[in-house]
């Protein structure tokens, strides 16, 4: 549905995007993840034809953004970082204007408007001026705008920024629901959001792609160590001594005290070695029973930090 | 294009701007009209329309200052430019909305000639010719103002650029007087005031009409270029 190849954007000497390539399949929700200033918005602005690229090609539904910008624009609904709202209009007037702008036939529009407003739950504010709406509602009106004309592709730039937790959950649900009928690219710098909503993740840092994969695969692939929490009954210093001498253990930390002589620890070990058996045997020999043993998978957050900080080291 | 024209035009009348501009303009005219009545004839309307075109220099930038600058500031520029509408259509829509406000302002000023026609015997053809010149003048001024608005995202800056631009345009004749030969000729050729004078004297010359319309078209074209340039900019 969307093909981006060798996309580069230069602002003077600064490379905002450096040879970025990826594709998005039809019906997929792709998460676009990166720290602030990584090039997420730049990519989205190029994708929607708002700015041009320095080199590289972007194809949406088979049309090239440079050669056929109007065809591409017909296929895309875009919610920029700052929702593009006319504050002096009511929600109704604004959506009517968007429909006119996107040349939605008047016959279809009546029903479509009703559906969109119900979907994003703004029917009850449709007669209010946009300037009097709360931030969450403004965001929804912005999203409604992107849905006008039922485009196949939705591009959402940080759709949950500035919303309260309840609104964030609602918008995420909404995006998931929209994903059934749309191809969606969603940018964010919030990791749980991306892992909760997206089928695939592109991690971008300093204009370059650091990784592309499903959230699960990313956690598996990038973790070169396994991590456990273990709760053991026994004096802290002795247990720590035993654990730290196990073959393959790289890192050990007391994470909490439950009772007297009952502590939980975080253990990180080489992936190739299964330290759990050793752990059991050694602790049993010394008479310190394991009360709980749990494997912790690396969160997307860890991977993200790992990827973006190694890049930094390389740069230096 | 029509969607933008309608939206922008309504937006003018949803804010105090249109009312203030039209009200103030009409009020100033009424003062001049009152003065004119003192002359004891009914053929001073041509002069008043002349004064009106001078006043436009101050009023048009206030009408046009928001056209594109406001969209840039609010982020609605993205909405317009990522919609399937062409840049030319967007600019034309915005231009025509501002021009329509100017036309409403012009229509309100019809009160004065109508009073004259009811109570006196003015030369109606002359007034019509002067008004035609005035409307063409407005078409050019609005184009310059829209262009100024495309250069910045600050409305006040847009108004100031617009005013300076229009001032420079109306000072062309004065500038020309410093030169001789070809330069003077070229500058006089560009002068809007000279063209307007013909209309004020009741001369409707097709060359002048085409000149004014082309002049406006050039600035609309420049506005489109400015917006396109921004899209392609590498800076």
Textual characterization of the structure:
The complex is a heterodimer of chains A (316) and B (235). Chain A has helices at residues 40-47, 69-75, 91-101, 106-119, 135-147, 165-178, 191-197, 215-222, 236-244, 275-285, 300-315, and strands at 2-11, 14-24, 29-33, 55-60, 63-64, 76-79, 153-157, 183-188, 200-205, 208-213, 225-233, 249-259, 262-270, 290-296. Chain A folds into two domains: 2-220, Rossmann fold (3-Layer(aba) Sandwich); 224-296, 2-Layer Sandwich (Alpha-Beta Plaits), CATH 3.30.70. In chain A, the strands form three sheets. In chain A, strands 6-7-8-3-9-10 form a six-stranded mixed β-sheet, sandwiched between helices. In chain A, strands 2-1-4-5 form a four-stranded antiparallel β-sheet, with helices on one face. A four-stranded antiparallel β-sheet of chain A has the order 12-13-11-14, with helices on one face. Chain A has eleven helices and 14 strands. Chain A has 316 residues and is an alpha/beta fold. In chain A, strand 9 (200-205) and strand 10 form a beta hairpin. Chain B is an all-alpha fold and 235 residues long. Classes of the chains: A alpha/beta (316), B mainly alpha (235). The interface between A and B is medium-sized, with 31 and 26 residues.
What are the segments of chain A in which pLDDT stays under 50 over at least 5 consecutive residues? 311-316
The CATH architecture name of the largest domain in chain A reads: 3-Layer(aba) Sandwich
**Quaternary structure annotation:** heterodimer
- If helices are DSSP runs of H or I spanning 4 or more residues, what is the number of helices of chain B? 13
- Mean pLDDT rating of chain B: 90
Order of neighbouring strands in the sheet with most strands of chain A: 6-7-8-3-9-10
Structural class of chain A: alpha/beta
Helix content of chain B: over 70%
Radius of gyration of chain B: 19 Å
Proportion of residues in extended strands of chain B: under 5%
């Amino acid at each position: 549905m969307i093909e981006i190849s060798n996309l580069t954007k230069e602002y003077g000497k600064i490379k905002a995007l450096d040879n970025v390539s990826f594709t998005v399949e039809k019906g997929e929700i792709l998460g676009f993840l990166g720290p602030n200033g990584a090039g997420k918005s730049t990519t989205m602005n190029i994708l929607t034809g708002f700015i041009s690229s320095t080199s590289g090609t972007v194809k949406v539904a088979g049309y090239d953004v440079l050669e056929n910008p109007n065809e591409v624009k017909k296929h895309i609904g875009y919610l920029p970082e700052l929702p593009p709202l006319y504050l002096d209009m009511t929600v109704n007037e604004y959506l009517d204007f968007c429909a006119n702008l996107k040349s939605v036939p008047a016959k279809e529009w009546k029903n479509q408007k009703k559906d969109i407003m119900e979907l994003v739950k703004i029917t009850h504010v449709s007669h209010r001026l946009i300037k009097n709406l709360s931030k969450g509602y403004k965001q929804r009106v912005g999203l409604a705008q992107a849905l006008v004309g039922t485009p196949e592709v939705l591009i959402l730039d940080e759709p949950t920024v500035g919303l309260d937790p309840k609104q964030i959950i609602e918008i995420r649900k909404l995006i998931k629901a929209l994903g059934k009928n749309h191809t969606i690219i969603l940018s964010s710098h919030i990791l749980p959001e991306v892992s909760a909503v997206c089928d695939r993740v592109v991690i971008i840092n300093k204009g370059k792609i650091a990784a592309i994969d499903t959230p699960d695969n990313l956690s598996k692939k990038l973790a070169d160590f396994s991590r456990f929490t273990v709760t053991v009954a026994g004096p802290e210093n002795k247990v720590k001594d035993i654990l730290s001498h196990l073959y393959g253990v790289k890192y050990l930390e007391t994470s909490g005290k439950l009772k007297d002589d009952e502590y939980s620890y975080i253990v990180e070990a080489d992936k190739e070695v299964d330290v759990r058996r050793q752990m059991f045997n050694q602790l049993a020999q010394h008479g310190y029973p394991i009360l709980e043993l749990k494997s912790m998978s690396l969160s997307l957050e860890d991977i993200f930090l790992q990827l973006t900080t190694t890049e930094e080291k390389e740069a230096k | 294009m029509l969607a933008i024209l309608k939206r922008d035009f309504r937006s003018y009348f949803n804010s105090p701007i249109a009312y203030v501009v039209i009200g103030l303009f009409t009020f100033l005219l009424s003062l001049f009209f009152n003065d004119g009545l003192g002359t004891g004839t009914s053929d001073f309307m041509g002069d008043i329309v002349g004064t009106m075109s001078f006043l436009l220099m101050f009023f048009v930038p206030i009408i046009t200052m928001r056209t594109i600058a406001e969209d840039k500031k609010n982020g609605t520029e993205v909405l317009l430019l990522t919609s399937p509408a062409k840049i030319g259509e967007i600019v034309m829509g915005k231009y025509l909305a501002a021009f329509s406000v100017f036309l409403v302002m012009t229509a309100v000023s019809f009160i004065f000639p109508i009073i004259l026609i009811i109570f006196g015997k003015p030369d109606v053809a002359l007034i019509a010719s002067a008004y035609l010149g005035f409307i063409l003048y407005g078409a050019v001024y609005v184009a310059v103002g829209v262009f100024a608005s495309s250069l910045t995202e600050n409305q006040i800056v847009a108004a100031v650029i617009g005013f300076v631009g229009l001032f420079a345009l109306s000072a062309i004749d004065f500038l020309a007087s410093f030169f001789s030969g070809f330069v003077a000729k070229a500058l006089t050729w560009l002068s809007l005031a000279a063209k307007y004078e013909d209309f004020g004297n009741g001369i409707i010359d097709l060359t002048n009409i085409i000149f004014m319309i082309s002049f406006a078209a050039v600035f609309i074209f420049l506005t489109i270029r400015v917006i396109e340039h921004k899209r392609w900019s590498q800076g």
